[in-house]
Structures are given as structure tokens and as C-alpha cells.
Design goal:
Layout (H helix, E strand, L loop, with lengths): L3 H29 L11 H15 L4 E5 L11 H5 L5 E6 L2 E7 L7 E5 L2 E2 L29 E7 L13 E7 L2 H4 L3 E11 L4 E14 L4 E20 L3 E2 L32 E2 L3 E23 L2 E23 L13 E7 L5 E7 L1 E26 L4 E29 L2 E4 L8 E3 L24 E3 L2 E19 L2 E18 L1 E2 L22 E4 L16 E4 L1 H8 L6 E2 L2 E2 L2 E2 L8 E20 L2 E22 L2 E23 L2 E12 L10 E4 L4 E4 L7 E12 L6 E23 L19 E25 L10 E12 L1 E6 L4 E5 L7 E11 L2 E10 L2 E4 L9 E3 L2 E11 L4 E8 L6 E5 L5 E7 L3 E9 L1
Parallel strand pairs: 4-7, 35-38
Antiparallel strand pairs: 1-6, 2-3, 4-5, 6-7, 8-9, 8-50, 9-10, 10-13, 10-49, 11-12, 13-14, 14-17, 15-16, 16-19, 17-18, 18-21, 18-22, 19-20, 22-23, 23-30, 24-29, 25-26, 27-28, 30-31, 31-32, 32-33, 33-36, 34-35, 36-37, 37-38, 38-39, 39-42, 40-41, 42-43, 43-46, 44-45, 45-48, 46-47, 47-50, 48-49
Length: about 950
């Protein structure tokens, strides 16, 4: 059978050939029709493509642009999903929705985002399998409704006037302004969505009001967007894979059959095979509400002066509930694996223990609930002034705040200890295993609420509320002077004050048990505190006998019965929460960046060919103060560093509408914020330190770009770009032996006669050798006007990106084990195909986005070298019809193939780590313009 991916590749190849052939033939058609010229007015998606081409063509830097189709009408419902249509951009999804982007193989950690000209950071909470809460510098695009914006710009080359901090790209998000529209405008829109897995209906709505007064000198705009989204995520996961014979395993050997390292190095088959640590199926339920608003006031008191005041608000408010039926003892020592007997084991050629029956296993059913909220605010004032015809300047002042709050993160579990007759079967599929538990998983009598560790892990009452705060203050001033009509000088400065704080609370350790259950009050039973999970497994093709219903704790009933939310000691137990119980997650960083730049823009000719460009240099100073706990001591470490970053961008036009671009620059990306904390642990007896590294240097790189662009017609472009980045360093965990004085930590931490000259073994994030990244991207965009009717109303976009990199990773710092792999987040190949149709009142399009597999984590943990994700192909479609000039109705389908999130561990075995899906999403809607 031919796969969907193969078919899409064939379609992309065919569409590219058709577009290219049509463009080569276009001059002949144009000549034949020269006597009968007819103006063609384009609207909607086609118009947005045409306007984006004009912006790209006029830029001196290498950029790609996406424009709104109409007032408050962006081409996609999610900003990340719009950006993936740009060559070199791929996206990561969380809960079925685009969250972060990768540009030319560099993950979101290396991409800076600016909102209305000012750097901003928006973060959300995610499930553990997708990285959890964002506590780094990456930008979560799912915070914002796409309808709030009218232009996205991805800047792939660096110029001196663009602020430093990005290795991948700088992404500019621009909200609408009243002067964009002039006279009074009112637009409203509404949609109703349906998900075929959750069976839920969800609303979306938009409103934009804009007007100008006093002959266009004063304008105001307000926009509002609201969306509700209920989705399910179902599938399997393993909690990684482990091998008892690998030294870094955590659970030890199975009890029988032996031996287990007796004599040394001798293991039985089951104890030298890879097994899942937590084999399970699970259901995640997402309930999101997204509210966004923008407001803008523009005032032009004179022809030479404009004031623009922008405000942006976004609130992503929701919850995530996780229900799992799992075996946990395979990941536990003590009462776990060492007590378990394995019967009838079967193995595959890759060393997996793919099926067996197990006695004395511990089975768990858990209910986790996360209350999640991200509130983003930005206020910005820009003043643009022309001092005269040749001299102009601008001042931009703003502040943005992103508060990601997870005030409730509670997990309750019921357990069954030393259960016999459990069987798993991964023989037919590592992704969709069969489970047989040997008891009735729906019967309350089968479960216990264990409050001791006598038989295994105590049941859970786990509470981990947390919060992340990011505050960015910006002041930017720019000046521009026209020395001659073809030569201008630019200069300016930028000051940023960035504050980052995270905090987390946990319960106290009671009787040696961490986050454990308590005894149920007399008369209270499991049946009274539980609920039934039903209807699991749609679209999963579960093996026969695998449960589709099971008993789960009911978190709300447990909370009410035991009063666990009191943050107190009550008659049932100690439910106090304190940040002192998780000091490592309580840290903050303050970063002050000051930079100045000087840039020359010019236009000239070389051998009769127009040449334009810019050349400049940017100098940046970074001052950081990082704070965190080393043991019980709160430590502050300050440091500074400087960077001088030259850049050049050239555009040569050897023939009309053919451009050759060249760019070269030095760039830098500051270290990830969690890595900068000085917090960790110190052992003065063993003379070891396991801490963060506030002295990390940025990742610096030299970059080269060369691209060729052809614009044979206003709506047509062909681009081929080559890029190369020489990363001078990388950041990863490593162990080294150094004097304490070189750690940057205060001597007050020392004890046991240790001095600043004492040699310590330090395990922390360190700057290591980098590597090269190189690749190319190609894009074709063309309406099929060269075809006979009715095919001339179609058009297409095809882009393809290839990236290659090699980085030497340290997979085991203590044993100096290393592996060469691509950059984390890098997909070697990605492409996007869009076919659209527009004729008078009817508009439609279908898009397919493919991304190769990529690494997600190095090292992979539990003796595995890496973790990663398999390739994905997402297909979306939409159509609209103009009932009148003012009223439009639409329909849209997202993730039409119900693509699975398919993750693996180990580059050799590709053992399944997670295999889940979220279903197809459909929307029906309308838009009305007054």
C-alpha cells in the first residue's frame, strides 16, 4: 500500500513541475494576450500571498511574510500553523495544537519573537511528555488567537538594526492599527467547532472595530477574539524503556528467572532485555478557553510626527486531566522488579522483552488534574518623527508580562500490590500493545489506597503547584539619515531588562514517604471515592482483551473527603505545601541587555546590475544575576559578557525580477534560563557539586546565506536558498574536576576544611564543542493562470527544506560516553504543499505539512542514548463563500488524517515511548463586515 506521505511527496513533485512549466510558458502566453489586457483583481488568500511577495521582494534582509487575508481574518486558526507554510519552518504540537516552531533545524530555544517591535516571551504549561511547563526562552504561540494579528514576518538573516539573541530566526508579530484601514470599519466573525474524538462542540468569535477622525489624524482600534476548545488525547506510553543489565537502570533485575550479575556480568535473558518502565494506556482531557484583545491609538499631529500606543492582552485559561491504567513496579527497585517473576518471555531481534506473563506486579490507576493559566500583557508606545526630508527617528518604549500559573497540579492514585497473572504483549506492535491484568480493573474491591511502603510504593496524594513569571521592559531608539538618495546611515540603541522567576511547592516527607496517601476515614471506601473511565480506544485498534474501561480515583471526591486542599495539618493528615520541599525549582534570573548599532544602507550598480544592501555592526553587553538554592543556602551569582556582531546583506538584480541575495553575520543566543541557576546540591565530604551554571557563555555562531529568487509575475515566486551556520559551542551536561574558585559559587558553602583551592567534581551544564549546520530550502508559489478555464482559478505553493548537522553529545558524563547526532529538534527534511482555488465568491484550499523525525532529548535516560519523535504529516482544508460583499460563510477541517504523536527512545531500537492522537477538528463559521 502506498503511504499518505509518499502520495503527498508525489503530489508536491507534480505540483512543482506544473508550476515551473507554467511559469516558463507564461511569457509566451503573455505575449499572445498582449493585445487583450484585462485587469484581474485578487482577494482573500491569493491577495495575501501577493502582498507578502511584495514585502519579501522589497526587503534587503532574507525574510518571509504571511499577511492577513482580510480584516481580522488570518489564514489559519493558530499562528504556529500559519508559520509552517514558510520554507524552513516546522512546528511542534501539544494537545493537538501548534505550540512552538523550529527554523532551519534550530529549535524554539534559538528563535526570538517580537510583538509590535518589542521582544516578548509567552509561556504555557504542557504535559510531561511534551516537555512540561515552558521555563525557557522559547515562545508558545498557542497563547494567542491568530485573528489578533495582520502580519507575521520571519527574519532569517541578521542585520545590525535587528536585535541580537537569535540563531534561527527573529519572528515579528504585528497587530492591526487604525491607520491600516482609514475610514470606519467593523468586522465580526463566529465559528462552531466539532472534534470527532471528544465529540464536543466549541465556539469561536472575533470582533474588530476601527475608525479615524479629524481628517485621518486620530485613529483608534479595538479587537477581541475568544475561543473554547475541548479535546481528548488517547493512546499508549511506556515511561521510557530500561534494561536491568545496563548500569544506569533504576529498578534492578527481575526476581526470576535469574541470574542477575552473578557471577559479575552474567544475566538471564529477561534481565538483559529492554522492558517498558511504565506500560500503560491513558486518556488526557483538555478544556481550554482563549481570550485575546488588542487596542491601538494612533495620533498624527503633524505630517512629520506619529504617535502609536499599542496594548495586547491574552488569557489562556484551562485544565488538563490525565487518567492512566499502568504497571509501576517495572520502574521500581526494592518491592518492584526484584519481587517480580517472569513467565513465558518472548524477545525480538532488537533486544526487547516483547511479551510475557508477570507475577507479583504493582498496578496503579491514577487521576491527575492540572489547572493552567497564562496571562500575557503588553503595552508599547512608539513615536516616529521626521526632523526633515533626510533625517528621521523613532522611540519605542514598552513592557510585557507573561505569568504562567499552575495553581493546581494534583495526582491521586489507587494501587493493587503483588498482583499475579498480568500480561503485556508488544510482539505485534510496540505502539499498540495488548494488556491483560488478571483481575477486574473496574471493581473497587480490586484496589487499595495504600498509605505504607510495606508492599510497594504508597498510593499518591501528590500536589505540586507552580508558577513562572517573565517580565520584559524595553527601550529602543533609532535614527536614520539620508547622506545621499542612495546612501543612508542608521544607528540606535536598545535596553532590555528581563526578569525570570519560577517557584514550586510540594508536600512534606511524612514518615519517610514522599507525597504518599493517608488512611481513609472510618466508613469511607474506594467505591465512594472513585469513578469509571469508559469508552476508551476509539481509533486505536486495541488488541483483543485490552480493557476499554477501568476504575479511577475521583480527585474531587478524595479532596472533599480528606480536605487535602487546606494547606494544613488536619485530622486526616499533613497536607501542608512549602517551597522548601522543592528548592531546586525556586530560582530567578535578572538579565539586563544593552546594545548599540551602526548600519549603512546603500544602492548602487555593479556592471550595470542594481545592487543594494546593508552593512553594520552591533555591540551588546549582557549583565546577569542568577539566584537559586544550593542545599539550604540561597546563592546569588553575577556575571557579564560582551559581543560584537558584524553583519552584511546584499541584493543583486542581474535581470529584471531576478534577485541574488547574500548575507553573512556573527550571531549569538543566550543560555536557557533554567540552566543559569546556581542552585543544586553540594557534598563537602565527597567533594562533589551537582548544580546549574550561571557562568555559561552564549552559543555563538558564524552564518552564511545565499539565495536566488525569481518573480516572473506579481503573484509568482521561485526561491532557492542555501544556508550555513558554524556553531562555535553548544550547551549540555558534563562533569569536570576544577578548583572550587572556578565554580562562581560563594566560599560560604564550603565545610570540612575545604578551601577555594580544593578540587571538586562538578556536574552541570557546560559549554562544549559545537558543530556545523547546513542546508537549503526551495519554494514555488504560483496561480495557475496559464491553464485553460476552469483550472486557471487554481494555484499552488510548494516548499521543501533540507538540513544537516552533527553535534557530539555527552550521554554519560561520569563515564565520558559520547554520541554524534543531529541537533535536538532538527528534522532533516520537511515540506509543505498548498493547493488553492479562488473564483469570484468561492475560495478553497487544502494543505499538507510534512516533517521528518527528530531528536527531542539527549541523553535519553535509563541507559538510552537519545529520545525522539517519528515523522508527521498534517493535512488541513478550508473553504469559504461570499454570500454578499459583506457576509462570508466558511468551513474548515484540521488534522484530517488524525495524525498520531509518535515518540520513541533509543536511536538503534526506536522503542515506543508514546503513541497518542487527538482526533479531527472541524469548524463552520461566518464573517460580516459593516
Amino acid at each position: 500500500m502506498i503511504s499518505t506521505t509518499t502520495r503527498l511527496r508525489a503530489l508536491a513533485c507534480g505540483a512543482s513541475t506544473l508550476i515551473l512549466a507554467g511559469s516558463l510558458a507564461a511569457p509566451a502566453f503573455a505575449q499572445a494576450a498582449s493585445e487583450e489586457v484585462q485587469e484581474v483583481v485578487v482577494t482573500g488568500f491569493r491577495a495575501s500571498l501577493a502582498s507578502a511577495i511584495q514585502v519579501k521582494k522589497a526587503e534587503t534582509d532574507i525574510v518571509d511574510v504571511i499577511n492577513a487575508e482580510d480584516i481580522a481574518d488570518f489564514p489559519d486558526l493558530n499562528l504556529a500553523e500559519s508559520l509552517q507554510r514558510i520554507p524552513g519552518v516546522a512546528i511542534d504540537r501539544d494537545g493537538g495544537e501548534g505550540r512552538t516552531i523550529t527554523v532551519r533545524g534550530l529549535s524554539s530555544d534559538f528563535t526570538r519573537v517580537r510583538l509590535n517591535g518589542l521582544e516578548a516571551l509567552a509561556t504555557t504549561g504542557g504535559k510531561d511528555g511534551s516537555g512540561g511547563a515552558n521555563r525557557g526562552r522559547s515562545f508558545d504561540f498557542n497563547v494567542f488567537a491568530s485573528e489578533l494579528f495582520n502580519r507575521l514576518t520571519v527574519r532569517k538573516s541578521q542585520s545590525a538594526e535587528v536585535e541580537e539573541g537569535s540563531l534561527g530566526a527573529t519572528v515579528d508579530l504585528r497587530t492591526a492599527k487604525p491607520f491600516d484601514y482609514g475610514e470606519g470599519v467593523v468586522a465580526i466573525g463566529g465559528q462552531y467547532g466539532y472534534n470527532d474524538l471528544s465529540k464536543k462542540w466549541d465556539p469561536r468569535g472575533t470582533l474588530l472595530v476601527s475608525d479615524t477622525w479629524f481628517e485621518g489624524k486620530l485613529g483608534a482600534l479595538f479587537s477581541l477574539a475568544y475561543a473554547k476548545r475541548n479535546t481528548l488525547e488517547e493512546g499508549s506510553s511506556t515511561g521510557r524503556w530500561e534494561n536491568p543489565s545496563v548500569p544506569t537502570n533504576s529498578a534492578g533485575c527481575f526476581q526470576t528467572p535469574g541470574p542477575c550479575n552473578v557471577p559479575v556480568g552474567t544475566y538471564s535473558n529477561v534481565n538483559s532485555a529492554w522492558h517498558p518502565r511504565i506500560p500503560r494506556y491513558g486518556r488526557l482531557t483538555y478544556d481550554w478557553e482563549r481570550t485575546g484583545a488588542t487596542a491601538a491609538i494612533q495620533f498624527k499631529p503633524t505630517e512629520s510626527t506619529t504617535f502609536t500606543l499599542d496594548g495586547l492582552f491574552a488569557l489562556l485559561d484551562g485544565s488538563r486531566r490525565e487518567n492512566y491504567l499502568e504497571v509501576i513496579s517495572f520502574s521500581r527497585s526494592g518491592q518492584g522488579n526484584p519481587q517480580t517473576d517472569v513467565l513465558n518471555p518472548q524477545f525480538d531481534e532488537k533486544g526487547h522483552l516483547v511479551s510475557a506473563t508477570f507475577n507479583d506486579v504493582d498496578v496503579r490507576t491514577e487521576d491527575r488534574y492540572d489547572k493552567l493559566e497564562t496571562e500575557f500583557n503588553q503595552i508599547a508606545l512608539q513615536v516616529d518623527h521626521e526632523f526633515n526630508d533626510r533625517f528621521r527617528g523613532s522611540l519605542l518604549i514598552g513592557r510585557s508580562t507573561s505569568i504562567q500559573s499552575n495553581p493546581v497540579q494534583t495526582t491521586i492514585s489507587f494501587d493493587r500490590y503483588d498482583s499475579d497473572g498480568y500480561r503485556y504483549d508488544y510482539a505485534d506492535s510496540l505502539k499498540q500493545p495488548g494488556f491483560s491484568y488478571g483481575f477486574d480493573v473496574t471493581n473497587p474491591a480490586s484496589w487499595a489506597f495504600g498509605n505504607t511502603q510495606a508492599l510497594g510504593d504508597a498510593s499518591l496524594i501528590r500536589m505540586r503547584p507552580n508558577k513562572t513569571v517573565n517580565v520584559l521592559k524595553n527601550v529602543r531608539a533609532d535614527l536614520e539619515f539620508d547622506v545621499t538618495p542612495t546612501f543612508k546611515l542608521k544607528g540606535g540603541l536598545l535596553y532590555k531588562d528581563y526578569e525570570f522567576r519560577t517557584q514550586e511547592q510540594r508536600r512534606f516527607v511524612i514518615g519517610g514517604i514522599t507525597e504518599g496517601a493517608v488512611a481513609l476515614p472510618p466508613g469511607v471506601t474506594i467505591a465512594q471515592l472513585s469513578k469509571l473511565i469508559t469508552g476508551f480506544g476509539k481509533g486505536l485498534n486495541l488488541p483483543d482483551g485490552t480493557p476499554t474501561s477501568w476504575l479511577s480515583p475521583d480527585l474531587e471526591k478524595v479532596a472533599e473527603a480528606l480536605g487535602i486542599d487546606c494547606n494544613c495539618i488536619n485530622p486526616f493528615g499533613d497536607f501542608r505545601l512549602s517551597p522548601n520541599n522543592q528548592r531546586g525549582a525556586n530560582r530567578d534570573v535578572e538579565e539586563r541587555d544593552f546594545s548599540v548599532y551602526l548600519q549603512a544602507d546603500f544602492e548602487t550598480e555593479v556592471a550595470g546590475m542594481p545592487l543594494r544592501g546593508n552593512v553594520g555592526v552591533r555591540h551588546a553587553r549582557t549583565d546577569q544575576e542568577a539566584r537559586g538554592f544550593v542545599g539550604a543556602n540561597y546563592v546569588t551569582v553575577a556575571r557579564s559578557y560582551k559581543d560584537t556582531l558584524p553583519s552584511v546583506n546584499l541584493v543583486l538584480e542581474p535581470y529584471d525580477n531576478i534577485l541574488v541575495r547574500f548575507a553573512a553575520s556573527k550571531v549569538m543566543s543566550r543560555p536557557q534560563l533554567p540552566n543559569l541557576t546556581p542552585g543544586g546540591t553540594i557534598n563537602n565530604n565527597a567533594r562533589t557539586l551537582n548544580v546549574g551554571n550561571p557562568l555559561l557563555e552564549p552559543i555563538r555562531a558564524d552564518t552564511l546565506d545565499l539565495s536566488f529568487e525569481w518573480y516572473p509575475e506579481p503573484e509568482t515566486q521561485f526561491t532557492l536558498g542555501f544556508f550555513y551556520k558554524d556553531l562555535k559551542s553548544y550547551i549540555q551536561s558534563s562533569a569536570s574536576t576544577i578548583p572550587f574558585s572556578e565554580t562562581g559559587l560563594p566560599p560560604s558553602l564550603l565545610a570540612n576544611n575545604n578551601t577555594v583551592d580544593t578540587i571538586f567534581t562538578v556536574t552541570q551544564q557546560q559549554n562544549t564543542d559545537g558543530g556545523s549546520l547546513k542546508g537549503f530550502e526551495a519554494s514555488i508559489q504560483r496561480p495557475f493562470t496559464f491553464l485553460p478555464a476552469p483550472f486557471d482559478r487554481f494555484g499552488g505553493i510548494v516548499n521543501f527544506t533540507y538540513v544537516k548537522s552533527d553535534i557530539e553529545y555527552i550521554t554519560n558524563a561520569a563515564r565520558n560516553e559520547r554520541v554524534i547526532q543531529p541537533l535536538v529538534g532538527l528534522s532533516p527534511k520537511s515540506f509543505n504543499v498548498t493547493l488553492y482555488y479562488e473564483y469570484e465568491k468561492l475560495k478553497a484550499r487544502v494543505s499538507g505539512a510534512y516533517r521528518d523525525g527528530y531528536l527531542s532529548t539527549v541523553p535519553g535516560g535509563n541507559g538510552n542514548d537519545v529520545r525522539g519523535k517519528f515523522s508527521t504529516l498534517n493535512v488541513d482544508a478550508s473553504a469559504s463563500f461570499d454570500i454578499t460583499d459583506k457576509l462570508t460563510v466558511s468551513i474548515e477541517g484540521i488534522n484530517l488524517t488524525d495524525e498520531f504523536d509518535d515518540r520513541w527512545i533509543s536511536s538503534e531500537r526506536k522503542s515506543s515511548e508514546e503513541y497518542v492522537h487527538t482526533g479531527r477538528q472541524f469548524y463552520m463559521g461566518f464573517r460580516y463586515k459593516f
